[in-house]
Design a protein that fits this description.
The chain is of the alpha/beta class and 283 residues long. It has helices at 85-98, 111-122, 141-151, 160-166, 178-186, 204-207, 238-247, 263-266, 268-281, and strands at residues 14-20, 23-31, 37-41, 63-67, 104-109, 127-133, 138-139, 189-191, 197-199, 212-213, 225-230, 251-256. The strands form 3 sheets. Strands 1-2-4-3-5-6-11-12 form an 8-stranded mixed β-sheet, sandwiched between helices. The longest helix has 14 residues, at 85-98. It is globular, with a radius of gyration of 17 Å.
Length: 283
């Protein structure tokens, strides 16, 4: 595992597509074909390029890919909109089958963590190790309502440069450098038919958010599992971790210093160190 200090330089990748859930889904392939597979899954309103700054830390040992969920990045949008957690989990299952991923490592951030928990609980057998990165493991009614309200907001920009200049990571608190955020922003915009630039995700992803409890999923997960917490993020509290361990004692916890919710952007080297150590322990 390459755990040297990671520069703010995105790893090269090629774009590819796979059919899942009746849609054309996009993924990035960072290379190392023939090695054990590793699949990154991003969070809500994000995209596969969230992993550009950490992918190179894993390609020495794994064939690394990063998926765009439906309605995100360069994947197709659902019409009519269907973005439930289980629908995304079923997409993930179909992707693993189409790409013939076996004994693969699954690493998922934020909303993608909840999707991956449901995938792992419903479709065991292919995944060998699971890493959940700073996910809200119990999404309450109040928090889901806030997300639905956010989904109703619309914004557009005259140029990609304008979008990038005004781009902000949500939630606030990120320690990512401006060059990292600029890279993420420039991969987050698409020019619409009216000439305006808009974010590359379907706002219905938020408008359809519903409360969900991921803790029961851990009862069905038997593979080695790591929860990664951003140092200043409140999402994976000591109380939540205790609940998880009560039903799944194999689950481990790692806190990445100098990071908030967007761990892989805030401290790429720390993220690689924490996840790499876990993967070595459970090789």
């Amino acid at each position: 595992m390459n755990t040297q200090k990671v520069a703010a330089t995105p790893a090269p990748a090629t774009s590819a597509y796979v059919q899942a859930g009746g849609l054309k889904l996009h993924y990035l392939d960072y290379g190392s074909a023939g090695r054990p597979p590793l699949l990154f899954v991003h969070g809500g309103a994000a995209h596969a390029h969230w992993y550009d700054f950490v992918a190179a830390g894993f390609t020495a040992d794994f064939h690394v890919r990063a998926l765009d969920h439906r309605g995100h990045g360069d994947s197709a949008w659902s019409d009519p909109p269907e973005y439930s957690t289980m629908r995304l989990a079923e997409d993930l299952h179909e992707v693993t089958e189409q790409l013939d991923l076996r004994d693969f490592v699954l690493i998922a951030h934020s909303m993608g963590g909840m999707v991956s928990l449901n995938y792992a609980a419903k479709f065991p057998g292919r995944m060998s190790r699971l890493v959940i990165v700073d996910s809200t493991l119990r999404l309450t009614d109040d928090r889901a309502a806030m997300m639905r309200e956010r989904g109703a907001r619309q914004s557009s920009y005259g140029t990609l440069e304008d979008l990038a200049a005004r781009y902000k990571l949500m939630p606030s608190g990120s320690t990512a450098g401006p060059e990292v955020i600029n890279h993420i922003a420039r991969n987050a915009g698409r020019r619409s038919e009216d000439g305006r630039w808009r974010h590359k995700f379907d706002r219905n992803v938020y408008t359809q958010r519903a409360s969900i409890d991921g803790i029961p999923c851990f009862e069905k997960i038997r593979v080695p599992t790591l929860l990664v917490k951003g140092e200043t993020s409140p999402r994976i509290s000591a109380e939540i971790f205790a609940e998880v361990r009560a039903v799944a004692p194999q689950v481990e916890l790692a806190e990445v210093p100098g990071s908030d919710h967007h761990v892989m952007l805030d401290n790429p080297a720390g993220f690689i160190d924490a996840v790499g150590a876990f993967l070595k322990r459970h090789a």
